[in-house]
Design goal:
The complex is a heterodimer of chains A (179) and B (387).
Chain A lengths: L20 H5 L19 H12 L3 E6 L4 E3 L16 E4 L2 E12 L5 E13 L7 E5 L13 E6 L12 E6 L6
Antiparallel strand pairs in A: 1-2, 1-3, 4-5, 4-7, 5-6, 7-8
Chain B lengths: L3 E8 L10 H16 L8 E5 L3 H4 L4 H5 L10 E4 L5 H14 L5 E9 L8 H4 L15 H16 L3 H14 L15 H5 L3 E4 L1 E2 L8 E10 L11 E10 L13 H14 L4 H4 L2 E3 L5 H10 L8 H6 L16 H5 L7 H12 L14 E8 L4 E9 L1
Parallel strand pairs in B: 2-3, 2-4, 9-10
Antiparallel strand pairs in B: 1-7, 1-8, 4-7, 5-6, 8-11, 10-11
Helix pairs in contact in B: 4-14, 7-11
The chains are: A mainly beta (179), B alpha/beta (387).
């Protein structure tokens, strides 16, 4: 035990020394530097392999959980809620509804971009409510995009597809149900 | 189960970049908490460290790197981590060390040094996205929150200005906090609404800044509390909960995992009517809309009601239900795990009447702190009470 320090206000002071960006840039402080070089190769597992193979063929697959009576997208090998195996693959439409979206003026590294990226979550027709994935939107302006809007996938040409989520280029407005 | 008392708290300056190493920051926060409690290293039985992703500090398994600064050399020590939830989860882990009876005195230290990731920690955030479905789209982490905020605003028809009021309140509250990074006594709703649009609806002043910093908290068992204080603050309850990582399969307008964590905590604390039984709260506010979202998740009001309470002044420091009297993450800063300083140390300082210029009026007896993390799926909740 040591003697307690009694102060009227806590924290009584703020220990630490503020560094400005210029302190680093102009080498006013001592620092050391490290750039990691690491590479990864992820195998996709049975469920995602089938899903991405489907995209390569221009098909969005869901998977049925019989116990929960849900059609899950993205598909998975087991149901996270009832914890049973998922069984039947279901071919879904390539249309859906915008659940939410953002109009982004920053890229992945927070660099500023002139032309905004339209990004959001699409629930896919034929799957259970709220079942879908994140993707880009196109052929619509930032003033037109709305939650609840019906959209349709725009695919890359067959020979460009490689079994990736980017085999869909973006989702465009689905007008009057006509294609 | 043993009753667990809080007997000390400490925190460092929060800034975008600090000169001290993570180990040194841990030492500075711990020393302050030891002075508050009136103890030294030998009096501590066990230590819990909380620190968020290794990628920020750039030191893999950084718990080992930090332990000397956390007064843990030669002691039972563990690092816990659940992303943004860590700032409240580390004190929950510290609580169970004492509640279980295995430690009489337990120190909890939380550290984050986001400034080491150069030039901006946003680069490290890229590595938390799903590698198969999300990363090929080149996402920015702000997108997640923009999408959640938009869903919340749209479902309840909430205006951006009612959300901006949270940023204004918290940055003004932070004026009384010596560690604060973004305190601003003159900020207005217009300033927030006119700030740069990053990913609509998120604008620059809707977001808390990345920071370096550390915080510390000391617990003891009720069995020995008479040695340290005559007016103890106790942990009334704890709760935590996580939802599925399949975030595109959930309706983002309401954080049901926060409600689950809150119910677990309230049951332990004997809180039957949260709005009435809780005197003030420190919900996690890395974005202004998150304070509102979390007030609803914490069952402090109905769904969609938080912006109305904020507009009516109920959540001001002198209001009926003060929210984030510390200044929160928006005003004091967001060194992820180290936000234990605002979310838990602040509850203790307020309940003990030690918060000085930030002290809420009246006689607060029950405060709730909460944190939130992983991919919009994890929440941690703690309730402290006086007497």
């Amino acid at each position: 035990m040591v003697e307690k320090k009694e102060y009227k206000e806590w924290p009584p002071f703020a220990p630490g020394t503020h560094l400005h960006d210029s302190d680093i840039k102009e080498k006013k402080v001592n620092y050391t530097w490290w750039e990691p070089e690491v590479q990864y190769s992820w195998s996709l597992g049975p469920a995602m392999s089938k899903f991405l193979q489907g995209l390569k063929n221009g098909i969005i697959y869901g998977i049925h959980c019989k116990r929960c009576k849900r059609v899950l997208v993205p598909p998975r090998s087991f149901c996270e809620y009832c914890y049973g195996p998922t069984e039947e693959w279901v071919e879904l439409k390539d249309t859906g509804t915008i659940e939410t979206f953002s109009i982004s003026y920053i890229d992945a590294d927070a660099r500023r971009i002139e032309e905004p990226i339209l990004i959001g979550v699409i629930s896919i027709d034929g799957a259970s409510p709220q079942h879908g994935f994140m993707h880009y939107f196109g052929e619509m302006s930032k003033d037109e995009i709305k939650i609840g809007m019906k959209v349709k996938a725009v695919w890359k040409s067959e020979n460009e597809r490689e079994g990736s989520i980017t085999d869909i280029k973006y989702f465009k407005p689905l007008k009057g149900g006509a294609e | 189960m043993k009753e667990v008392a809080v007997i000390g708290g400490g925190m460092t300056l929060f800034r975008r970049r600090l000169k001290e190493t993570g180990k040194e920051l841990s030492y500075l926060a711990t020393k302050m908490a030891m002075e508050d409690a009136g103890i030294q290293k030998d009096d501590i039985d066990m230590v819990v460290m909380g620190s968020a992703p290794d990628a920020f500090d750039g030191i893999h398994m950084k718990g080992e790197n930090l332990l000397d600064g956390a007064a843990a050399a030669g002691k039972p020590y563990v690092r816990v981590f659940n992303g943004g939830g860590t700032g409240v989860f580390a004190p929950i882990a510290g609580w169970w060390h004492v509640a279980s009876g295995v430690a009489d005195v337990c120190l909890v230290v939380c550290e984050e040094k986001m400034g080491s990731c150069y030039p901006h920690p946003q680069t490290a955030f890229r590595h938390i996205w799903d590698p198969i479905l999300d990363r090929p789209l080149n996402p920015n982490l702000v997108w997640l929150f923009a999408m959640e905020m938009n869903r919340y605003m749209t479902v309840h028809n909430i205006k951006k200005e009612d959300i901006a009021r949270v940023a204004v309140k918290n940055k003004r509250n932070a004026v009384g906090h010596p560690c604060a990074q973004l305190a601003d006594p003159n900020i207005t709703v217009e300033d927030v609404l006119n700030s740069e649009v990053l990913a609509w609806p998120v604008q620059r002043l809707d977001i808390s800044p990345p920071s370096d910093g550390a915080a510390a908290l000391i617990y003891c068992s009720k069995d020995v509390v008479h040695k340290f204080t005559d007016d103890p603050i106790y942990v009334a309850g704890v709760g935590w909960n996580i939802d599925s990582t399949m975030w595109t399969n959930r309706d983002l307008y309401f954080p049901r995992y926060v409600a689950n964590a809150a119910k677990m905590c309230y049951k332990m604390a004997g809180i039957t009517n949260p709005r009435k039984d809780i005197d003030f709260a420190e919900p996690y506010d890395p974005f202004d809309y998150k304070e509102l979202h979390h007030m609803e998740g914490l069952l402090l009001c109905d769904k969609g009601e938080a912006p109305i309470l904020t507009r009516e002044g109920v959540t001001q420091r002198d209001g009926d239900l003060p929210i984030c009297p510390s200044g929160g993450l928006l005003g004091v800063g967001n060194p992820i795990a180290a936000t234990m300083g605002q979310k838990v140390c602040e509850l203790y300082w307020q309940l003990a009447g030690k918060a000085g210029k930030r002290q809420i009026p009246g006689d607060p007896r029950m405060g709730v702190g909460q944190a939130w993390g992983d991919i919009m799926q994890m929440s941690t909740v703690i309730a402290l009470r006086r007497g």
